[in-house]
Amino acid sequence: MVFHLDPLVAVTIWQRLRRLGGPGLVLLGIADNSVIPLTGSMDVLTIWLAARHQEPWPYYAVMATLGAVIGGYITYSLARKGGKRAMERKLSRKRAQKVYQTFERWGFWAVAVPALLPPPVPFVPFLLAAGALQYDRKKFLAALALGRMVRYTIVAGMGALYGTHIVRFFSRYYKPALTILIALACLGATLTLVQYVRYKRASTAS
Questions:
Q1: What is the distance between the alpha carbons of residues 160 and 154, in angstroms, rounded to a whole number?
Q2: Complete DSSP assignment for 73-94
Q3: Cis omega (within 30 of 0) on the bond before 23?
Q4: pLDDT at residue 198 above 70?
Q5: Structural domain contains residue 199
Q6: Is there a domain that residue 73 lies in?
């Protein structure tokens, strides 16, 4: 089974999210911080909205952060209920152990720093690790909010600063840019699904 996203459906969804503005960022942030991340989509939409100047750019930074925190907390909560076994069904045991070690060493910053960094730096494994290791909820939310707020403040600020050039670029290369974005989202979803099925079979066999 391979995840497939119809391009026409993806275009329709993207257009509706753009029209929603800030609330669209919240919805996309929830999806992007789930176990099926939509690589690069949040950055692109945040930049686009900030570049259009329909609202002050800090508004888009806040709304993007809000969506990311809600989505991240959902993933964290699911991992918290499932524990380490649930995480190891999403990742290989070897990779899970590396994430655990990083998290146990850095704690707060193991969430805040990956939340700040752009793709292709993986972030979902650290959300899962925080939940699986029963990391304190308040500290987790603070770290996630800090990292995402810094990131989207920079992204939205760039959108506002270079708005004219960005709008011109998207107007000229709208279809190729959207095609690449859809392809990255499909790739991320497919890899996540394949990985999940593989380790589910491995855990069943053992």
A1: 10
A2: HHHHHHHHHHHHHHHHHHS-HH
A3: no
A4: no
A5: no
A6: yes
Q: Are 101 and 20 in contact (CB under 8 A)?
A: no
1 within domain boundaries: no
Is 91 buried (19+), middle (13-18) or exposed (0-12) by CB count in 10 A? buried
Q: What pTM did the predictor assign?
A: 0.74
Range of the structural domain that residue 150 is part of: 7-180
Predicted confidence (pLDDT) at residue 86 exceeds the cutoff of 70? no
φ, ψ of residue 132 to 5 degrees: the values are: -60, -35
CB 126, CB 103: distance < 8 Å: yes
Number of structural domains in the chain: 1
Q: Residue 81, exposed/middle/buried by CB under 10 A (0-12, 13-18, 19+)?
A: exposed
* DSSP state, residue 145: H
CB distance 18 to 48 below 8 Å: yes
% helix, strand, coil for the chain, step of 5: 85, 0, 15
pLDDT at 163: 75
pLDDT tens, residue by residue, 18-33: 888 889 899 888 888 8
Residue 40: C-alpha distances to residues 110, 130, 179 (Å) = 21, 23, 12
Distance CA 117, CA 40 (A): 11
CB 25 within 8 Å of CB 42: yes
CA distance 5 to 2: 10
Residues 6+ apart with CB under 8 A from 120: 39
200 inside domain: no
